[in-house]
Amino acid sequence: MSDATAIRAAGTRAQEMIDALAAISADSDRLTRLYLTPEHKRAAELAGTWMEQAGLSVRMDAAGTMRGSLPPGRPGPSGNKSLLIGSHIDTVIDGGRYDGNLGVVVGLLAIEALKARGEALPFGIELLAFGDEEGVRYPITLTSSAVAAGVFDPAALDQSDRSGVTMREALTAFGGKPEALAGEAYQADSVLGYLEVHIEQGPVLERTGAPLGVVTAIASQSRHRIRIKGEAGHAGTVPMPMRRDALVAASELIVGIEAIARKDRKNSLVATVGEIEALPGASNVIPAEVRLSLDVRAATDEARRDAVATILSFARKTEAVRQVALTFETVLEKPVATCGPRMMAAIQEGASRVMGKPAQQLLSGAGHDGLSMAHLAEYGMMFVRCRGGISHNPAEFVTVDDMGAAVEGLVEAILALARQEAAR
Amino acid sequence: MSDATAIRAAGTRAQEMIDALAAISADSDRLTRLYLTPEHKRAAELAGTWMEQAGLSVRMDAAGTMRGSLPPGRPGPSGNKSLLIGSHIDTVIDGGRYDGNLGVVVGLLAIEALKARGEALPFGIELLAFGDEEGVRYPITLTSSAVAAGVFDPAALDQSDRSGVTMREALTAFGGKPEALAGEAYQADSVLGYLEVHIEQGPVLERTGAPLGVVTAIASQSRHRIRIKGEAGHAGTVPMPMRRDALVAASELIVGIEAIARKDRKNSLVATVGEIEALPGASNVIPAEVRLSLDVRAATDEARRDAVATILSFARKTEAVRQVALTFETVLEKPVATCGPRMMAAIQEGASRVMGKPAQQLLSGAGHDGLSMAHLAEYGMMFVRCRGGISHNPAEFVTVDDMGAAVEGLVEAILALARQEAAR
Q1: Which of B314, B334, B354 is the C-terminal boundary of a domain?
Q2: Cα distance from B362 to chain A (closest Cα, Å)?
Q3: Are residues B187 and B289 in the same domain?
Q4: Apex CA A21: angle with CA A23 and CA A52, to 5°?
Q5: CB-defined contacts A:B, below 8 A
Q6: Which of B272, B291, B292, B362 is the best substitution to test chain A (most A C-beta atoms within 10 A)?
Q7: What distance in Å separates the CA atoms of residue B222 and residue B226, rounded to the nearest whole number?
Q8: Under a CB-based contact definition with an 8 Å cutoff, are residues B126 and B66 in contact?
């Protein structure tokens, strides 16, 4: 178990840096920092200044990602490969200060600590402060990490934000270079792996009383749109047996979806109806049509597909019994992105050392930059406990000690990787 | 059974008059005729012209109701009492042409038919074309019939429409007299009863294959607002057993409400959730709060109150099991308005004669001017079959023959009342 004083000190520095970043916002009364905005630039420049102070060679890449490089401290068996460490510094509208930003801060403090301890690593380190993970300004997301991983689709440059500004225009105004994006991809054989520290955004670590956890994968996910058409009618004049109420049918389906999702705990299955609209939507009219969103995630693609099939079959039964017309559309489908075994092992070792007990493994239900980086190299993620599992909200909170533990955990994970390399 | 040729002829005249009224609208492409608007005035004047042509003494009262009077044809045992016959000529926005308007047209054609047959009735008749039954322009409704029944609350004159025009201002501009409303109430001892012919607005007569039906009462009704507070969370990161999903709780309640309402067919119990809103309403966020409307109606106040109590008790169980916070508010409560036995008997006799079979009795789930008129006198209603039970919609439809049957049915009901009077 690490030294509590060192952890507290690292956490205190992390808090100061988090607070300095949180002061950079589009809005005076809340934290909003979208991709390629003036506040994104100020936050990136602040991160760049910190990187320089830590002795990294710093440059902003063509996509607006601030990159800080540290060469290997000694020759490694894998040649001059680099370990990439990153996270994002954009936020949602009225977001929290830890989501994304904590990963950059923890990465920087871990590099500082390794230098302070005089550790000579057998690989270089590249610290990456990505600018677009939340996907709030433009329809697509993970722009910055897709560029770094070489999987960016340049068609995305023609997307417009709500003000009609294309990504190409915004990137140029920001000081980026749309024409140079393809050249910013790392060569796969120069990369050892990608590590990211991120708040959990869920309640699991808090419930189990652990500051850190090891991510096994980013869940398989799909999004669907369901429409149920019944028959409108006067709420006072149509007897119950003559109704084809679209909202009652939808409600039966929502209850059924929950029951189906509860059955597969082994695969961390979750299913959520977050949006519902009933038409015409008057208190004295039987709903004629209901529109629902459905979000399904699981630890494996198979478990998710099985769940969707079970839900659809349940929906077809409801459709038949209630004599409504149901359409079921899949609007998004993302396969599971499994963490690399070497990276996972390193994080497992690092987090367990700091906590003095075996770190829990858990699935990431949320998407992260690792989804892009997995195309380039093995990736691994360390989760940090956050209060109430709350994120994307000003109430987002991580304790100073947990942030310190994350810094120490990442240091230990990097040292574990160095030992892995030395043992090859 | 009445003569099919006479019924067809009366129905054809009714259709012409219905179409002439339907041409009077605020909108060129749909039927919209709100209280105290220029189109209300034109429709009232057209009705007034028809009343004059039928030999009635016509005046517009201080609330904008067109009233046509016919004195008794011979002295009656109850003195010079009058039978009131009425309905409304306002519509909802994008409404149908039969709702309300049909009652005025049928009333007029019945009076014409009685005169043509030389029937000398032992009571006078007052035909009333009310202007505000739908309650679309101002928050309160039944203004015109409340004035006629002497139950109008003058505080309602200070209500504003969406443009900020008070009812007092609109009534004055229309040519009405806000200060004279109290003097427009009928004296209870001068009224024999109130009869209204109206489309069913429900599917019961169509299913049973009858053009006409006898209303027993206007249902007991209450409206409620339900709020369910759970806990927001990321749709990907909160395991199913840790969720307090407000929408799943609401769905369980909606399914439960339907089951409770289905159990009491004897009392024509209906319960409807027509409005639902889930907050924050994003596909990737577990709903934190859901707001529902609930409309409950039944043949008796007791049955309705029992149902509301059962629903509330079910809701409290859902609240406890799902660990959500539920509030249940009653925003409207109207007692049942039972039809008078003499008026019901007359309509029963009239409708049965025309159909050549006993007319079915049914509850009116919708509110009508009878709710006001019940304060003044016995009231009775005859329902006319409408296609698919559809109303408040351009698709509203009544066949010519059914309208003719309604005219003949009302004539026979009035004659039945005349016989009742003679037998006293």
Answers
A1: B334
A2: 10
A3: no
A4: 135
A5: 207
A6: B272
A7: 13
A8: no
A232 with A203, same domain: the answer is no
Kindly report the CATH number assigned to the domain that includes residue A35: 3.40.630.10
In sign, the C-alpha dihedral spanning A356, A361, A365, A367 is: positive
B159 and B241 belong to one structural domain: no
Residue B146 near residue B372, CB atoms below 8 Å: yes
Pairing mode of beta strands B212-218, B337-338: antiparallel
- Name which of B237, B254, B287 is nearest A389 (Cβ-Cβ): B237
Residues A298 and A362 in one domain: no
Nearest to A269 by CA among A302, A293, A291, A314: A302
Q: Per-residue pLDDT for chain A (424 aa), expressed as one digit of tens each? A: 468 999 999 999 999 999 999 999 999 999 999 999 999 999 999 999 999 999 999 999 999 999 999 999 888 776 689 999 999 999 998 899 999 999 999 999 999 999 999 999 999 999 999 999 998 899 888 999 999 999 999 999 999 999 999 999 999 999 999 999 999 999 999 999 999 999 999 999 999 999 999 999 999 999 999 999 999 989 999 999 999 999 999 999 999 999 999 998 899 999 999 999 999 998 989 999 999 999 999 999 999 999 999 999 999 999 999 999 999 999 989 999 999 999 999 999 999 999 999 999 999 999 999 999 999 999 999 999 999 999 988 999 999 999 999 999 999 999 999 999 888 7
Least Cα distance to A47 among A21, A26, A13 occurs for: A21
- The answer to whether B90 and B22 have CB atoms below 8 angstroms apart is no
Vertex B325: Cα angle to A318 and B335 (nearest 5): 75
**Percentage above 90 pLDDT, chain B:** 90
Domain hosting residue B238, numbered range: 220-334
State both tokens at B418.
């005349």
Number of structural domains (chain B) is 2
CB contacts under 8 A, B 261-320 vs A, are 261-262, 265, 268-276, 278, 281-287, 293-295, 297
Question: Which residues 206-225 of chain A have a CB within 8 Å of chain B?
Answer: 207, 219, 221, 223
Distance in Å, alpha carbon of B373 to nearest chain A alpha carbon: 20
Q: Which DSSP symbol is given to B57? A: E
Question: What would the two tokens of residue A264 be?
Answer: 């597969």
Phi, psi of A251 (to 5 degrees): -65, -40
Amino acid identity for residue A74 in this structure: R
Contacts with A292 from chain B: Cβ below 8 Å: none
> At residue A345, what is the residue type?
A
- CATH number, domain containing residue A306: 3.30.70.360
Q: Where are the alpha helices (DSSP H) in A175-300?
A: 204-208, 246-262
> Which among A201, A235, A389 has the least Cβ separation from residue B274?
A235
For residue A199, which phi and psi values (nearest 5 degrees)?
A: -65, 150
